[in-house]
Amino acid sequence: MVDVTTVLRATLLGLQLGMTLALVAAGLTLIFGMLDVINFAHGALYMLGAYFGVVVVSELGSFWAALVIAPLLVAAVGAAIEILSLRPLYGRNPLYHILLTFGLAIMIEGIVVEVWGGQSYRIPAPDALSGTLSLGSLSYPVYWMFVLAVSTALIGAIWLVISQSDVGILIRASAHDTEMVDALGVDVSKVFTGVVVFGAALAGVAGVLLGASRSVNPGMGFGVIIQAFVIVVIGGLGSFKGAVYGALLIGLMTAYGALIAPSLTDLFIFALMAVVLIVKPSGLFGATEAA
């Protein structure tokens, strides 16, 4: 029999996992919405964020520095990928982008193994975030609550920027009618680069945040990209709102599934994705929405 405290703990864990996955899925879906590129290398960027975090903490001894510097480094890698490899293929068959980003993911994983080896690492969480927080009969790790708060704040800020700011209007306009925006004198290529850089930075943030609670290893990118693709398929390719709701749904299903039937959790998730594809192939929030 599962008690109320266990359900509350699973709910918090599911929300925390969902909001962190939303950081990865949001970048993935924004890139697709803008560029029509299914970026298989996005999971590798998440992995790079975790490894850069390990290096920064090792060199500077500060988790907070890692939380800032590692995403910036991943953003620089994202800019290089967009300018040097994705941009020359815009307007070509989408299969080229799939093959290219899949190859990039393999290359990045190979470089990581060559530089850091195949062993696992962990980003040490700061002492200020150690211990547990008591919420009545529920004890919850302070660091996990921090991850939930930071992820929620970032997703909320992105939502506001996309829906309320001039930058958001420019992104949505570029996604819906690139030629019109270009005719108005806006350098759309810079908008594309900015979206890829921003998506890569979000993946880097998620890598650092989860790198302090999970193992940092060369296979972590593959695992998260599968979850991210399930999320964007359920929410709708290109929809930021769909990515957030889809991530929360997957996070809660994962947490509750661990209580009810741990061995069947993945089956439930992929069954849900199959049902969504059959009933509404464009996803819960459509396929062409950029915000």
Q: What does this molecule look like?
A:
There is one protein chain. By secondary structure, this protein is an all-alpha fold. 74% of the residues lie in helices and 3% in strands. It contains 11 helices and 2 strands. It has helices at 4-35, 42-60, 63-86, 94-116, 142-164, 166-176, 178-183, 188-211, 220-235, 240-260, 265-279, and strands spanning 132-135, 138-141. A two-stranded antiparallel ribbon has the order 1-2. Strand 1 and strand 2 form a beta hairpin. It is globular, with a radius of gyration of 19 Å.
**Main β-sheet: number of strands, strand sense, barrel status?**
2 strands, antiparallel
**Could you say which structural class the secondary elements and strand pairing correspond to?**
mainly alpha
User: What is the global morphology?
Assistant: globular
Strand content: under 5%
Which helices and strands occur, and which strands form pairs?
Layout: H1 4-35, H2 42-60, H3 63-86, H4 94-116, E1 132-135, E2 138-141, H5 142-164, H6 166-176, H7 178-183, H8 188-211, H9 220-235, H10 240-260, H11 265-279
Antiparallel strand pairs: 1-2
Helix pairs in contact: 1-5, 1-8, 1-9, 1-10, 2-3, 2-4, 2-8, 2-9, 3-8, 5-6, 9-10, 9-11, 10-11
Compose a concise summary of this entry.
The protein has 291 residues and is an all-alpha fold.
Descriptive keywords:
291 residues, two-stranded antiparallel sheet, mainly alpha, globular, single chain
